[in-house]
Amino acid sequence: MSTTPRIALIHALKFSIAPIEAAFAELWPQTQLSNILDDSLSIDRAAAKTETEAIQGRMRELADYGVRAGAEAILFTCSAFGQSIDRVKAQYQIPVLKPNEAMVEEVTALGGRVGVIATFAPTLETIEPEFDEEARRQGIDIALELVHAEGAFECLTAGDLDGHDQRITEAARSLAGCDTIVLSQYSMARAGMAVADATGVQTFTTPGSAVRKLKQLLVGDNHTG
Fold first, then answer.
1. Which of 143, 86, 141, 150 is nearest to 116 (CA)?
2. Residue 95 sits in which domain range?
3. Which of 13, 23, 94, 198 lies deepest, with the highest CB count within 10 Å?
């Protein structure tokens, strides 16, 4: 592996780019990031209500492009494409991470009641089985409470960042009885501190967990920096 590995970041939302770039800059700056974006995928996924063969094929084509461009690992940053990512995982020997994979491992290890918030409703359909599978793998009992922060995504796309964060925080207040709260999309990371302050509950966002996992997989280093 090169001293500055190239990581392909595959996005279906443009809003995911800044949070993951910030996480790499903080935790593992010795990387080359290749951002691959098709934001029509999120539109088509929401309209289709499922991951069609066509959508899965397009996600696979983006991964193929990343590999041809020299990627040594692939990180998907949109959580509503679990089936598509599983197909890519089966295709390549290099590390391929689902958006929430590393975070799900960390949160599941803590056990207890987990509150999961999404602003893009299809994310909730894919993340629940991820938690269930990881809980079985670790042999740990967890309970999930899923919440859609209605209107937050629309605020984000309209450029109303304060409204986006406020709607997520309002949704989080209903989860104050949980042991942990998860913001399940990269685009939600900006609201992490506000949620933790409003609820007093340990709050997890996904970008940092993903960077730590990739660094461990590629260089065997559990330390950041």
1. 143
2. 6-99+208-219
3. 13
